[in-house]
Amino acid sequence: YQRRVRGAGSIEPMEQTSAPDAAPAEHPKLTCAERQLAKLRKLALQPGFWGALYGGRLAQLERMSPEERRTFDSTGGFKARQTAALELAELSGPRVYIDLGYEQLMGEAQLKHLARQLENCSSANQFADSPVALTMIHHTPEFEGRVLDNKGSECKRKSVPGTVWLRSPPPSLEPPTLYLSPDAARVLTPELESQASAYVIGGLEDGDIKGGLRKASLERAGELGLTAVSLPVDPSVCMHPSLNVHTVVEAMLLRRGGMSWAEALGTVIPRSKKQPKAAKRWSSLLAAQSHHVVKWPLIPVALEGPLLGWGRLEPEGRRPVGEKEEEESVSQNPSKRQRPHRSGKLYSARKKQQVQWMLERVKAVLEQAPGITQVVDVACGKGDLALMIAHTFPHLQVTGVDVNLPALEQSRESADELGIKNLKLVECCAAEFSQESVQLVVALHACGGLADIALNLAQAHGCSFVLCTCCFCKHQGLIPPAATWDDVSVDQLKALRSIADQDEPRTMAGGMHVINALRLSRLEGNSKYTEVSLRSFPTEFSRKNVVLYGVAQ
Hints:
single chain, about 550 residues
């Protein structure tokens, strides 16, 4: 009976629409194959690896005649085929090793993520049409127990067919075994693929690869004496070549199933890592500005000497620049203690390398223009660069400019503690700063419009400059109007800034190069400068590594 609410909650039965003793409508009975087809049609709508797997099975069943389907079902169907394929893979199939020897370098959260990824690897390999012999190596018993004993709900199965946890030392890995590393310059080709007997995948979480453990898998491949190759990831599709472990395994399984690498990677790479829809427009915009790149080529410059000891700049009781006190880091987040690349030590070392590289460029400018005595550090912050210039070149008068008063106070305390007398700190906006004599303008990681302010200051005084640019979408209110950016419109400039702040290294490098080339175009034809160029320091120091370099007469 249908019911209708009448009044304040009273319910009254409505007129019966059909006789209660009427026979129910008859539905045609589905055969086993038809039910399987209906189920596969729903499963094939899933994104990623599983949608491709079930879509392939659906296509196989649809190509079968009714007689072939009945024979296929009577012999066990896809389940029997999976079991046979796993047995064949364990005996003679290609072997894929997952190197879990990075456990001591990872924090608790990263280990949990990695455990889930290994579960996904095992599940995908178990149900794949063309599985591989998946073997975990170089792991500790504690991590194996974390995954297999279902601690923390990280794995639903205690054992998965087709996956082996090798506790004993692994067999000698010799060529033609290939070590897959996103940092390898050599790309996996069909020729290398046909010669490879096994593959090794570094057991790293992708956040670690893009963070402090960058190139760790490349170094491990060298230690094992294996050839390191990277997957042919199209930069126009994926923002960053570093992928999760299960994503790599799923792509290899689809590749073995008959897909090309482009199809397999395009299927398994999650949407969050794919390039935005504007990537094609960005490519055409970078191509249209290529004449600026040709006019102002990027000159890579390595660190000339070994890393200098900072001596008196690191006395006992004063923590290095950029390094957090251990007690503070432990009390706020104990898990980060186990991550050396986040403890502050690595960032301190990287900052020292950047500062020393800048010091070497300042020294080169002083050799070309020996009369320089007045130096201005724009957006000096805590004084990392200004302190070192004043300490290394006592004959220079260094002025640090920043709007951040607490950072300036810390820099002033450091200068007083170290007895540095040739450093003056000014609290003001960089755009409002003025000084009668400026002979050299420096900046380390001047974000967005601050780099333009520093360059305008050097141009106004006709003086030399060494400016490391950074974060192109920040301080947009300080960015000069579009009229000063050669032939670039407001919309194009906005798009170029977005390109320069992307995560994908090659896309980001192209945007940074174009914007900084446009900045130097303002000095074209200026007779005061004997040298104007774009320099870059190694990306191991920082990925924001493009430096504007100019020497005035």
